[in-house]
Specification:
Blueprint (H helix, E strand, L loop, with lengths): L11 H11 L4 H10 L9 E5 L4 H12 L3 E5 L8 H9 L4 E2 L6 H12 L9 E4 L3 H17 L9 H9 L6 H16 L3 H8 L2 E4 L2 H12 L7 E3 L4 H24 L7 E5 L3 H12 L3 E5 L3 H9 L3 E2 L2 H4 L5 E4 L9 H6 L4 E5 L9 H5 L5 E6 L2 E5 L5 E5 L5 H4 L6 H20 L5 E2 L3 H12 L11 H7 L15
Parallel strand pairs: 1-2, 1-4, 2-3, 4-5, 5-6, 6-15, 7-8, 7-10, 8-9, 10-11, 11-14
Antiparallel strand pairs: 12-13, 13-14
The chain binds nicotinamide-adenine-dinucleotide and 1-(beta-D-ribofuranosyl)-1H-1,2,4-triazole-3-carboxamide.
1-(beta-D-ribofuranosyl)-1H-1,2,4-triazole-3-carboxamide binds next to helix 3, helix 11 and helix 18.
Length: about 475
């Protein structure tokens, strides 16, 4: 069993300098270490993380270790690892399996390595981003049960048996890689997934798309362990998704293309939290901005913020830049790209790579791909027009830049630490959010760093508006 796999362990010193530079920008995590560290509330907990292996995540990992946890990590995206940060963590003896530019086969291998402790067993807790580690356990258990149901054609083994028994038809490269690793886990131990599922005390989920998957599993009665929805802490989705993307979208586009944004026509698909941050950032960079929405409330919000609302199809001959932010599929089709203006930049900041039809674009008749540099490709169509696709349609802020800045990730990751402590304590059932009191606490930890001074309610004021003097200050239905 190998201890870690990163691009180059010699990058560890650089990674350590980057970590040390970022720590003061993550006051929530540093305070979490001071406040809870001495008690070691995560002592004995084996925590597996499937979350972008960035500098900010390195500081989360080291916080979990200060809290007493035994940690193993993989990235949740093939392009998002900061190789220096990964090396710095591996050099401390924490197993990391992540590098920038993994293949999908390597990605699922890394996920399985991070899920497997030296004794062959799985984790107690998972920190997930997008739900891939959770998916691995759930799909794996289905496969284990199917194999045990004994209907297997004895001649079939491994992946072939799984495909036959699960009735899996043509698999995508990604699905094939996932089921290959499931087959490998079952080869090492035919009971691997039932043992792992029984051991896991819970998962804390970072992002909108992963949270959707959890609620779908819960609705079907298939969720195998409790979960904390970190994304819908106010101090996560109303900060990271909006203000994080407001900074890291532009960073990704600029590092990829060096293009002047001022005066360009930019189209943002989706005006949820991420879309709001992206649209605002593009406007601040002096683009003309239009957005699309399916939800009339979000569409009206966009109108009130001064954005035009229209459809992708009506904007094909208008936009110089498209950004997808919906967490949905088939938002920009290959047909759309075939009709775009010459030199249009197309990118996605949603969690997965299916918002833009990349596979269909690659297979489009007569299309020619030129790689300008890693994660930047030009596609030239038969009629001579070209488009630029960033990070192969995967999240551009982590594929072409380094993700959100530390300050906003501190908020997200302080929620992650609190969620992990809650799950390890036990008693969580189904999918829950953190109590508002903790949400307010996360915000409070970040105020001093920005020079903010809170006003204290008087008893008379608190009674008048019906809240405790020390909070929580809002009912659960308040929307911020
Ligand atoms: P959200 O639900 O707040 O917003 C998505 C919006 O897209 C919704 O308003 C929805 O109505 C709209 N939408 C759905 N289908 C559409 C369609 N066909 N056309 C136009 N609009 C459509 O979710 P969010 O929190 O904004 O997250 C969006 C995605 O970004 C998710 O995949 C999430 O996991 C991811 N995310 C990425 C980052 C990052 O750093 N890259 C950060 C946070 C979230
Ligand atoms: N995200 N992480 C970073 N710098 O580590 N940047 C963004 C980082 C997370 C963010 O919380 C979002 O919900 C998720 O990436 C999408 O995969």
């Amino acid at each position: 069993m190998i201890k870690y796999k990163v691009k180059d362990i010699k990058l560890a010193e650089l990674g350590r300098r980057l970590i040390e530079t970022e720590e003061p920008e993550m006051p929530g995590l540093m305070e979490t270490r001071r406040k809870y560290g001495p008690r070691k509330p995560l002592k004995g907990a084996r925590i597996m993380g499937s979350l972008h292996m960035t500098v900010e995540t390195a500081i989360l990992i080291e916080t979990l270790k200060v809290l007493g946890a035994d940690v193993r990590w993989a990235s949740c995206n093939i392009f998002s690892t900061n190789d220096a940060a990964a090396a710095a963590i591996a050099a401390t003896g924490t197993p990391v399996f992540a590098w920038k530019g993994e293949t999908v086969e390597e990605y699922w291998w890394c996920t399985r390595e991070a899920l497997t402790w030296p004794d062959g067993q799985g984790p107690d807790l998972i920190v997930d981003d997008g739900g891939d580690a959770t998916l691995f356990i759930h799909k794996g258990l289905e496969c284990e049960k199917a194999l045990k149901a004994g209907k297997a054609n004895k001649a079939l083994k491994g992946l072939k048996a799984i495909k036959a028994l699960m009735g899996l038809g043509d698999l995508s490269a990604e699905e094939n890689a996932l089921y290959t690793e499931i087959a490998n886990a079952l080869k090492s131990d035919p009971d691997w997934f039932s043992k792992a599922a029984a051991r896991i005390k819970g998962v804390s989920e970072e992002t909108t798309t992963g949270v959707h998957r959890l609620y779908q599993l819960e609705a079907k009665g298939e969720l195998l362990f409790p979960a904390v929805n970190v994304n819908d802490s106010v101090t996560k989705s109303k900060f990271d998704n909006i203000y994080g993307c407001r900074e890291s979208l532009i960073d990704g586009i600029k590092r990829a293309t060096d293009v002047m944004l001022a005066g360009k026509n930019a189209f943002v698909c989706g005006y949820g939290d991420v879309g709001k941050g992206c649209a605002e950032a593009l406007r601040e960079n002096h683009c003309r901005v239009r957005v699309s929405e399916v939800d009339p409330i979000c569409a009206l919000q966009a109108c009130m913020a001064g954005f035009d609302v229209g459809t992708v199809q009506d904007a094909l001959k208008w936009a110089n830049l498209f950004v997808t932010t919906t967490g949905n599929v088939d938002i920009i089709t290959a047909e759309d790209m075939a009709k775009m203006r010459d030199q249009t930049i197309v990118c996605n900041i949603g969690h997965f790579d299916d918002e833009i039809q990349v596979a269909r674009l690659m297979a489009w008749p007569g299309v020619r791909r030129t790689t300008i540099k890693p994660q930047v490709d030009r596609f030239t169509f038969k009629d001579g027009h070209s488009i630029y696709l960033l990070a192969e349609g995967r999240l551009v802020n982590l594929g072409c830049a380094t993700g959100h800045p530390g300050f906003v990730m501190s908020s997200s990751f302080t929620n992650q630490c609190l969620a992990q402590m809650l799950l390890w304590e036990g008693g969580v059932k189904g999918v829950i959010r953190l109590p508002k009191k903790l949400d307010e606490e996360v915000a409070r930890l970040h105020l001093a760093a920005r020079g903010a001074k809170l006003t204290r309610l008087t008893k008379r004021q608190a009674d008048y508006i019906g809240v405790p003097v020390a909070g929580p200050f809002k009912p659960d239905y308040y929307r911020y």
